[in-house]
C-alpha cells in the first residue's frame, strides 16, 4: 500500500483513469489496487493519506465518464470520504444513474453539509433519487426537512409514500402526528405495502425518546384501545412495550401484572417477557404474590418467568408448586428447580418422585443431572432406598451418569430389591462406576 | 445446508407432497390467537424457493401454504412440488400480508434476511430464518428490535448447539458444553476450527472479477433480487448458487459455514450475550466485489478466550479446544486421563427449547433465537469486515462498534438501496 501511496494524488488519479469500460479490458488489478488503498486510508490513523486519496478520487470522478467505473469510484468513497467531498458529489444527487451510490456514501458521512445538500436536492429530485433522498433524510433524522417530507407522504406513489412515512417515523416530531395517524387509520392498522402501520408504530416508539413522553404514552394507549382484533395482537404487544418502556419499573410491573390477565395468550406471554426487564426484589415479590393467586397455565407461565429471571426469592413458591394438582404447574416448578440449580429444592424433588408419574419422574431425573452440588449423589442414594421401583431406576441411572463412586454401599443395598429390574439397574450402575 | 441433510432430496420432496395431500389444515388465525389447528400443524410461507427454500418445504408440524420467489422458474418448480393449493407471489410483502400464514420462512440469499425478518415481525408473523442471520451487524440489531417489539418467535436455522454431531468433532455439542462448563480444561480456552479439527471452510465460495455485462433472463426480476443491495450489472454468476462469492450478498465460505461452526462454539464458551474484543486476520487483499480466500482469523474475547478459524489448515496438531489444564480433539479424545469418568460428576447443561413448533405454541423462546443468533452472526460479520479492510480490528461488545476505526464502523450498517421497492 505504501507503494500505491507513493504515487501521490496525481498518480492515484492517473491510476483511476486507467479503468477500462466493461468488455474493453480487465480492470481486476486496478480495482484491487484502488479499493485496497481506499480500505488502507480508511483506518483512523492515516489522515494525511486519506486527504490525498480524496483529492485524487474527486479529480478522477470528474474526468471519468464511463458509468460502471464512475460508480466504482463513488462506492470506494463510502470507506474513506469525509465532508470535504460533499460539494463534488452534490451534482450527482439528481442523476438517476448515480444518486443511489452517492446518497449512500453521503449518508455514511452525515453532518450538516450532507443534510443541507440532501434537503436542497429533494426539492428538485424525481423518481428513484427522490425516494432515496427521503429515506436518507429520515435515516439521518433531519427535522428541518420534515415539512417537505410530509408533502411526499401524501404522494400517490406507494413507494415514495412508504419512504416518507418511515422517514417521518425516524424524525419523530409531533408535527407529523396528523399525517401518521391518517395513514394508519386508512389501512385500519393492517399490514400494507406502504408500511403505514409499521411506520406509525415506529413513530410512536421514537416519540417516546423525546421529552415530554406524554404524546407517546397517549398514542400507545390509543393503540391498545383500538387494536382489539385477534389479528392485531402483535400491535397490542408493541404498544404494551412502548407503554412499559416509558414507565418506572414499579409502575411498569403493575401494568404487566394486569396484562397477564388478558384473554390472549400471546399477549400474556409477551407481558411476561417484558416483566423480566423491570425485575427487582420488590417486583419479584409482587409476581410471587400474583402467581400464588393464579392457577393453571397462568401460574405455570409466571413460575417459568421467575425462573428465567433467576429469582431465588421464588424458591418457596416453586417448592409449594411441586405439590399442585395441575400438571402444568408441577412441570414448571420442576423446570424452575433446574433453571436455578436449586439445592434447596432437592429434598422436595426427591420426595415428589415417590408419587410422580413416569414423565415427571424422568423430568426430575434430568433436573438432578443439572444441579451443581456435591451433595446431590449422597442425597439421591439415601432417598432411593425407600422410593418406588420406577423412581429407583431413574435415580440409579442418575448415579451411574454422575459416576457416584462414593455411593457404592447404597447402590449395593438395592441388589436385594424384590424387583428384578431394580436389581439389574443396580448391577449396571455398579459396573458404570467401576465397582 | 438443510437440517435434514441426511435425507435425500427425492424422499424429502415425496414426504412433503404426501404431507400436502394428507392433511386438511385449519390455520391458526381461524381458531384465534394462541390456539393451534387440531392437526397441531402451523402454516408456513416460504420466501425464496431455490435449492435452499425447496429443501425446507417438509418440516414436521408445518404446512407450506404460500411461496414467493423473484425467479418465475423457481416459483413454477416449487409449485409443481407443492400442488395447486399453494399461493404464489413474486413480492414477499404480499405473502407476508396473508392472514393464513403463521410462520414466514426466509430462505433467500442473506442480503434479504434482515429486511424480510423485520417486515415479517411487523406483520405479526413468527420467523424461521436461514443462516447467516443477517448480512450486516446493523441489520441484526434491527431484527432483534423488531422481533422483541412485536413479541414474535424467531428461529435461526442452524441446530448444532442442540442436536446432531458437530461436524468433524463427531460428537454432539452437549458433552463438550458440559466439559467446558466443568472447567476441566481450565480457562481461558482456545477453540480451533480447521479441517484438522473437522471443519471445512469451503474456500471454493469465491467470486469472479471482470464479469461482462449480461442481459437479465426474462424469468428473473433482477431489481427485486438485488433489493437492498447496491445495483451491479447482471451476470449469472452473481445470482443463484453463486451469490456467496460476492460481498454485497454474503461472504464466501465464511458466510456460508461461519454461523454453523461458530454458533455452537459461542454456546460452548458461554458467550451468547457478548462478542470478541478483537480480531486478527491473515489474508490476501480482497477484491471490493468478489470474495477471495483467507488464511486465518483469530477472535479474542475480553477474558482471553480465543476462536481461531484456520482457513488453510496450517496447524495439523491443533486441538479443537485447548486450555491450560487439557485439550479436546475430535471424537471426544483428550489428554486428560479418564475424562468421561471425571466429567460424570458434573451437572449437565441446562435444557433448551429445541422444538420451534412448541416454542410458537407456548410462546417460549427458541434455543437459537434473535439475540444469540445475532451474536454468532456478528462473529461472521466482524470477520467479513476485517477481511474487506485487510486489517485487524478492536471491538466494543456493548456498543457493538469498532474502536477508533471509522472505515470499519462504516461497514457495520451501510445504507441500503432505497428505490428497489
What's the total number of strands of chain A? 0
Which structural class do you get from the secondary structure elements of chain A? mainly alpha
Give the end-to-end Cα distance of chain A, rounded to a whole number of Å.
68 Å
Q: Could you spell the SSE succession of chain B in H and E letters? A: HHEHEHEHEHEHEHEHHEEEEEEHHHEEH
CA gyration radius of chain B, whole angstroms:
21 Å
Number of strands of chain B: 15
Structural class of chain B: alpha/beta
Unreliable spans of chain A: none
Q: Which pair of chains forms the biggest interface, and how many residues does each contribute?
A: A-B, 81 and 62 residues
Strand content of chain B: 5-15%
Q: At the first level of CATH, what is the class of the largest domain in chain B? A: Alpha Beta
Distance between the termini of chain B: 29 Å
State the low-pLDDT regions of chain B, or none.
Answer: 1-27, 29-38
Please, how many helices of chain B?
A: 14
Overall pLDDT score of chain B: 90
- The level of helicity of chain B is 25-40%
Shape assignment of chain B: globular
Average pLDDT of chain A works out at 95
Describe this structure in words.
The complex is a heterodimer of chains A (435) and B (421). Among the domains of chain A are: 1-81; 281-340, no CATH class; 356-435, no CATH class. The model of chain A has no long low-confidence stretch (mean pLDDT 95). Chain A has helices at 2-5, 8-16, 28-41, 47-63, 67-80, 86-89, 99-109, 112-122, 127-139, 146-152, 158-171, 177-186, 196-207, 214-226, 233-246, 249-259, 265-277, 281-293, 296-308, 315-321, 327-339, 346-352, 358-370, 375-383, 389-401, 408-413, 420-432. Chain A contains 27 helices and no strands. Chain A is elongated, with a radius of gyration of 33 Å. With 435 residues, chain A is mainly alpha-helical. Chain B has 421 residues and is of the alpha/beta class. Chain B has two domains: 9-157, 3-Layer(aba) Sandwich (Rossmann fold); 167-205 and 249-358 and 367-409, Dihydrodipicolinate Reductase, domain 2. In chain B, 31% of the residues lie in helices and 15% in strands. Chain B has helices at residues 9-22, 28-31, 51-54, 72-82, 92-96, 113-122, 137-149, 173-181, 222-226, 252-269, 339-344, 356-362, 370-389, 406-409, and strands at residues 42-47, 62-68, 87-89, 103-106, 126-130, 154-157, 190-193, 278-282, 296-300, 306-310, 321-323, 326-329, 333-334, 393-396, 401-402. In chain B, the strands form two sheets. Chain B has a nine-stranded mixed sheet with strand order 13-12-11-7-10-9-8-14-15. In chain B, strands 3-2-1-4-5-6 form a six-stranded parallel sheet, with helices on both faces. In chain B, helix 3 (51-54) links the parallel strand 1 (42-47) and strand 2. In chain B, helix 6 packs parallel to helix 7 (137-149).
Amino acid at each position: 500500500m505504501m507503494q500505491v501511496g507513493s504515487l501521490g494524488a496525481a498518480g492515484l488519479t492517473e491510476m483511476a483513469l486507467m479503468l477500462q469500460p466493461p468488455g474493453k479490458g480487465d480492470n481486476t488489478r486496478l480495482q484491487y489496487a484502488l479499493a485496497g488503498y481506499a480500505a488502507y486510508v480508511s483506518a483512523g490513523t492515516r489522515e494525511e493519506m486519506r486527504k490525498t486519496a480524496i483529492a485524487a478520487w474527486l479529480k478522477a470522478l470528474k474526468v471519468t465518464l464511463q458509468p460502471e467505473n464512475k460508480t466504482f469510484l463513488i462506492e470506494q468513497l463510502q470507506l474513506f470520504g469525509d465532508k470535504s467531498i460533499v460539494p463534488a458529489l452534490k451534482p450527482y444527487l439528481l442523476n438517476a444513474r448515480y444518486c443511489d451510490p452517492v446518497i449512500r456514501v453521503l449518508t455514511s458521512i452525515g453532518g450538516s453539509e450532507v443534510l443541507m445538500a440532501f434537503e436542497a436536492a429533494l426539492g428538485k429530485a424525481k423518481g428513484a433519487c427522490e425516494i432515496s433522498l427521503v429515506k436518507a433524510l429520515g435515516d439521518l433524522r433531519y427535522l428541518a426537512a420534515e415539512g417537505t417530507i410530509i408533502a411526499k407522504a401524501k404522494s400517490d406513489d406507494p413507494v415514495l409514500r412508504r419512504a416518507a412515512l418511515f422517514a417521518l417515523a425516524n424524525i419523530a416530531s409531533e408535527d407529523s402526528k396528523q399525517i401518521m395517524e391518517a395513514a394508519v387509520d386508512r389501512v385500519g392498522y393492517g399490514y400494507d405495502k406502504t408500511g403505514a402501520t409499521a411506520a406509525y408504530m415506529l413513530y410512536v416508539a421514537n416519540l417516546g425518546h423525546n421529552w415530554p413522553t406524554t404524546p407517546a404514552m397517549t398514542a400507545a394507549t390509543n393503540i391498545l384501545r383500538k387494536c382489539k382484533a385477534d389479528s392485531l395482537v402483535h400491535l397490542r404487544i408493541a404498544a404494551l412495550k412502548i407503554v412499559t418502556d416509558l414507565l418506572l419499573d414499579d409502575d411498569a410491573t403493575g401494568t404487566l401484572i394486569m396484562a397477564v390477565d388478558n384473554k390472549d395468550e400471546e399477549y400474556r406471554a409477551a407481558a411476561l417477557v417484558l416483566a423480566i426487564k423491570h425485575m427487582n426484589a420488590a417486583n419479584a415479590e409482587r409476581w410471587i404474590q400474583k402467581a400464588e393467586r393464579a392457577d393453571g397455565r397462568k401460574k405455570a407461565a409466571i413460575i417459568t418467568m421467575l425462573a428465567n429471571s433467576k429469582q431465588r426469592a421464588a424458591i418457596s413458591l416453586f417448592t409449594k408448586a411441586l405439590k399442585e394438582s395441575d400438571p402444568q404447574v408441577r412441570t414448571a416448578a420442576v423446570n424452575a428447580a433446574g433453571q436455578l440449580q436449586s439445592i434447596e429444592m432437592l429434598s422436595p424433588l426427591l420426595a415428589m418422585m415417590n408419587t410422580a408419574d413416569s414423565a415427571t419422574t424422568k423430568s426430575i431425573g434430568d433436573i438432578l443431572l443439572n444441579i451443581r452440588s456435591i451433595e446431590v449423589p449422597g442425597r439421591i442414594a439415601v432417598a432411593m432406598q425407600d422410593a418406588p421401583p420406577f423412581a429407583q431406576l431413574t435415580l440409579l441411572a442418575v448415579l451411574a451418569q454422575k459416576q457416584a463412586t462414593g455411593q457404592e454401599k447404597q447402590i449395593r443395598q438395592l441388589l436385594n430389591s424384590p424387583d428384578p429390574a431394580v436389581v439389574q439397574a443396580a448391577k449396571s450402575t455398579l459396573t458404570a462406576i467401576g465397582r | 445446508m438443510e437440517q435434514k441433510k441426511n435425507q435425500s432430496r427425492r424422499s424429502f420432496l415425496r414426504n412433503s407432497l404426501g404431507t400436502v395431500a394428507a392433511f386438511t389444515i385449519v390455520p391458526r388465525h381461524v381458531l384465534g390467537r394462541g390456539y393451534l389447528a387440531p392437526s397441531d400443524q402451523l402454516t408456513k410461507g416460504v420466501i425464496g424457493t431455490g435449492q435452499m427454500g425447496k429443501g425446507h418445504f417438509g418440516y414436521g408440524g408445518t404446512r407450506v401454504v404460500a411461496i414467493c420467489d423473484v425467479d418465475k422458474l423457481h416459483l413454477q418448480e416449487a409449485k409443481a412440488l407443492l400442488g395447486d393449493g399453494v399461493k404464489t407471489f413474486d413480492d414477499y410483502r404480499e405473502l407476508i400480508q396473508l392472514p393464513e400464514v403463521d410462520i414466514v420462512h426466509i430462505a433467500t440469499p442473506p442480503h434479504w434476511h434482515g429486511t424480510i425478518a423485520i417486515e415479517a415481525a411487523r406483520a405479526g408473523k413468527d420467523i424461521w430464518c436461514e443462516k447467516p442471520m443477517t448480512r450486516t451487524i446493523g441489520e441484526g440489531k434491527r431484527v432483534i428490535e423488531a422481533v422483541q417489539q412485536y413479541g414474535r418467535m424467531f428461529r435461526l436455522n442452524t441446530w448444532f448447539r442442540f442436536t446432531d454431531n458437530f461436524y468433524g468433532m463427531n460428537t454432539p455439542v452437549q458433552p463438550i458444553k458440559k466439559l467446558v462448563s466443568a472447567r476441566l480444561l481450565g480457562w481461558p480456552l482456545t477453540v480451533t476450527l480447521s479441517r484438522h479439527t473437522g471443519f471445512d471452510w469451503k474456500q471454493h465460495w469465491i467470486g469472479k472479477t471482470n464479469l461482462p455485462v449480461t442481459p437479465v433472463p426474462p424469468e428473473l426480476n433482477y431489481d427485486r433480487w438485488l433489493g437492498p443491495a447496491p445495483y451491479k450489472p447482471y451476470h449469472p454468476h452473481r445470482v443463484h448458487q453463486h451469490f456467496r462469492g460476492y460481498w454485497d450478498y454474503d461472504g464466501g465460505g465464511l458466510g456460508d459455514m461461519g454461523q454453523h461452526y461458530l454458533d455452537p462454539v459461542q454456546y460452548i464458551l458461554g458467550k451468547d450475550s457478548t462478542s470478541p474484543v478483537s480480531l486478527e486476520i491473515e489474508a490476501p487483499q480482497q477484491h471490493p466485489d468478489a470474495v477471495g480466500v483467507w488464511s486465518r482469523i483469530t477472535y479474542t474475547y475480553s477474558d482471553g478466550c480465543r476462536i481461531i478459524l484456520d482457513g488453510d489448515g496450517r496447524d495439523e496438531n491443533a486441538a479443537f479446544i485447548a486450555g491450560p489444564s487439557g485439550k479436546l480433539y475430535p471424537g471426544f479424545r483428550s489428554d486428560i486421563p479418564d475424562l468421561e469418568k471425571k466429567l460424570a460428576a458434573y451437572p449437565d447443561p441446562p435444557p433448551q427449547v429445541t422444538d420451534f413448533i412448541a416454542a410458537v405454541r407456548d410462546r417460549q423462546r427458541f434455543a437459537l433465537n434473535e439475540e444469540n443468533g445475532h451474536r454468532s452472526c456478528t462473529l461472521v460479520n466482524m470477520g467479513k469486515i476485517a477481511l474487506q479492510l485487510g486489517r485487524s480490528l478492536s471491538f466494543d461488545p456493548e456498543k457493538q462498534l469498532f474502536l477508533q476505526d471509522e472505515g470499519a464502523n462504516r461497514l457495520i450498517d451501510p445504507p441500503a438501496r432505497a428505490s428497489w421497492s
